[in-house]
Amino acid sequence: MGLTSARLRAFGAVAEEGSYSAAARRLRLSQPAVSKAVQELETAFGVTLFERRGRSMVPTDLALELGPVAAEMERVEAEALRILRRRAMADSGTLRIGLGNSMPGIALIGAFQRRMPKVHVQVEFGNSAAIIDAVLENRVDVGMLPNVPDDRRFLRKTCLVQKVVAVIPNGHRLAGAASVALAELASERLIFRTPGSSTQRVVDRAFRQAGLEVRPAMLLETRDGVCEAVANGLGIGFIWRYGTSRSDGFSRVPVAEINDNYEEVLFHRTDSENRLAALFVADARPTPAG
């Protein structure tokens, strides 16, 4: 082949360094090897890439046009090498993950462990405030939450877009409805999350904007607790639409006044050098909403 990565790499080094000897030192090759690679490239395409002036190699107009392409190829190769080395180094160790909801985080963890079976994963569950604090304080390496504040201290990756919905016990008159209004819910036994929950912040704002004052019948710490209480007929609660894979005992019903979509994001500290956290975030595939 006339064009090979080795020949283009040799050309790029000569173009940047200005001589065969300097290019050879940079590439850790012999000077004749670099000179030969450039000459083979010129011969293959019948072109002149450099003109010798004294001890320097001056690029022709064609070489000036080709130079940025060679530089970009070198950058891409370096990035590919970095990724491959990172993968090779990250075949073991412990990754600490903080989740606000079991899903889709558990699904992403499962996919990651199938690719990286030697990595030990520790999972911490908590509300939004607790998980953000855990990431900031390095108690977990990476967090996953909906509605994470746009903060320069975090690197973020969106994995899902979803809304808050009402969860209504099977057999309730509102179960299975196409949607429900907050005014209808205000007279029901409501189950709320404790302060610090991103779900509860959305629900509180919606009731406030609707001009409705409500007092919950129950206040629970976790989403799983809300699902369990609703499934046992103790009231109506609220969860992120894809916050759990559970579907027994209740139905998810959209709330007419809660229309905003929120991103579920993976995030870790901007200054983190944890290779497993970076690999987990980079490898995570957005989960389709459905």
Q: What's the average pLDDT?
A: 89
CATH class of the largest domain: Alpha Beta
The share of residues in helices is 40-55%
Largest sheet: 5 strands, mixed
Sheet-strand content, in percent, reads 15-25%
Examine the coordinates and then state which fold CATH places here, giving the name of the CATH topology of the largest domain.
Answer: D-Maltodextrin-Binding Protein, domain 2
Annotate the secondary structure layout.
Elements: H1 5-17, H2 20-27, H3 31-45, E1 50-53, E2 56-59, H4 61-89, E3 93-99, H5 105-115, E4 119-125, H6 128-136, E5 142-146, E6 154-162, E7 164-169, H7 182-186, E8 191-193, H8 198-209, E9 218-220, H9 223-231, E10 237-240, E11 250-254, E12 262-269, H10 275-283
Parallel strand pairs: 3-4, 3-5, 8-9
Antiparallel strand pairs: 1-2, 5-12, 6-12, 7-10, 7-11
Helix pairs in contact: 1-2, 1-3, 1-4, 2-3
Describe this structure in words.
Belongs to the LysR transcriptional regulatory family. It comes from Marinibaculum pumilum. This is LysR substrate-binding domain-containing protein. The chain has 290 residues and is of the alpha/beta class. It has three domains: 5-89, Arc Repressor Mutant, subunit A (Orthogonal Bundle); 93-158 and 264-283, Periplasmic binding protein-like II (D-Maltodextrin-Binding Protein, domain 2), CATH 3.40.190; 164-260, Periplasmic binding protein-like II (D-Maltodextrin-Binding Protein, domain 2, 3-Layer(aba) Sandwich), CATH 3.40.190. It is 41% helix and 22% strand. The protein has ten helices and twelve strands. The chain has helices at residues 5-17, 20-27, 31-45, 61-89, 105-115, 128-136, 182-186, 198-209, 223-231, 275-283; strands at 50-53, 56-59, 93-99, 119-125, 142-146, 154-162, 164-169, 191-193, 218-220, 237-240, 250-254, 262-269. The strands form four sheets. The chain has a five-stranded mixed beta sheet, with helices on both faces. Strand 8, helix 8 and strand 9 form a beta-alpha-beta unit. Helix 2 packs across helix 3. The longest helix has 29 residues, at 61-89. It is elongated and about 90 Å long. The two termini are 48 Å apart.
